[in-house]
Design a protein that fits this description.
Blueprint lengths: L192
Length: about 190
């Protein structure tokens, strides 16, 4: 039917299809114009791909939005109890701009890890020459702290470590502190 509307009303509707070969479409929805819409009133929509070769792919040349319309609802990615890698923006070509959070309303990022011997965060930027690796802008800061490191354990290594022990010739500074012409009453470095 290319002109009318097909309506199916039932307590349950089930589609079962077996492709003739791996990689072929077993069930294909194609909309030349318009959209394909799955809507439930109180139910859930589940899509599961399994087996040895099963995969789930969403591919489009338009925007993809994953959102919730109800307050206090969560968008969960990779929260089942299996080992995995979660890759975001790992394409080998094309600039990947990854935006996280929003200023208004204020967003926050919490990172929790039970790692004991592995690094929690690794940043590799061996190609950067003149840009800043991490850039903070804190123009409204008053009594807060930009970086707060709190450790009451008996450590044997360095809490903050800068290592440039290679044979390269460098003319910059390991640590540089500068201040404007304001009436400053604090200290550059306060050791207690």
């Amino acid at each position: 039917n290319t002109t009318g509307i097909i309506t199916m009303d039932a307590a349950e509707v089930e589609f079962n299809a077996t492709a003739t070969a791996a990689g072929n479409d077993a069930l294909d929805f194609n909309a030349v114009l318009g959209k394909i819409d799955f809507t439930t009133t109180s139910g859930a929509i589940g899509m599961t791909a399994g087996g040895d070769t099963g995969s789930f792919t969403v591919l489009t040349n338009q925007d993809i939005t994953l959102n919730t319309t109800g307050a206090s609802k969560n968008v969960n990615i990779g929260n089942s109890n299996v080992a995995r890698a979660i890759n975001i923006g790992t394409a080998s070509s094309g600039v990947q701009d990854i935006e996280i959070g929003h200023i208004t309303p204020a967003s926050k990022i919490n990172i929790s890890s039970g790692s004991i011997t592995d690094d929690v965060i690794d940043i590799t930027t061996d190609s950067v020459t003149t840009a800043n690796i991490i850039d903070f802008t804190v123009d409204a800061l008053t009594s807060g702290t930009v970086i707060n490191i709190d450790s009451d354990n008996a450590w044997t290594n360095a809490i903050l470590k800068i290592d440039n022990s290679g044979n390269t010739i460098w003319t910059g500074n390991m640590l540089e502190l500068s201040s404007g012409t304001g009436d400053a009453s604090g200290d550059f470095l306060n050791m207690e």
